[in-house]
Amino acid sequence: MSKTIVKFLKTHGRYVKGDVGGFDPETIAAWPKGVCKPYDPDETLEISSVQIDTSEAQKLIDDARAELEQKAAALDSQRAELDAREEAVAAREQAQAEPAATEENPKGASNDAAKTSAGTPPKQGAKA
After folding, report:
1. Residue 71 confidence (pLDDT)
2. Read out DSSP for 2-70?
3. Which of 5, 45, 96, 105 could disulfide-link to 39, CB 3.0 to 4.6 Å?
4. 109 or 9: whose pLDDT is higher?
5. First and final CA of the chain: distance in angstroms?
6. CA pair distance 96, 98, nearest whole angstrom
7. What does residue 4 show for φ and ψ, rounded to 5 degrees?
8. Confidence of residue 125 (pLDDT cuts 50, 70, 90)
């Protein structure tokens, strides 16, 4: 028994529109009408040219690009502000690290003895 070559016009089972396959005539007869048609190898496809207006898409792209440039400028200004703050904090920390000159310590030398020994704790117990 010979097979008939058909082209599917819509989805049927595992076949989709445009698929080509060979089947027994009894199998094809069992399918619903309009699922396939006999395959014509000489059938030519009609190709039509389509004009697409991309002006709206280009406008959206330009708007997005402008928005990105604005956000990049805002990020740059924030970065500059953060850098200035970091420099101010570093300068403040540097100033705090240097011993300050006071009346008790006119040369600004650190009082290491006072920092290392806190003295003896107060005596505890019953008061007499």
Report:
1. 96
2. --EEEEESS-BTTB-TT-EEEE-HHHHHHSPTTSEEE--TTPPPP--------HHHHHHHHHHHHHHHH
3. 5
4. 9
5. 127
6. 5
7. -105, 130
8. confident
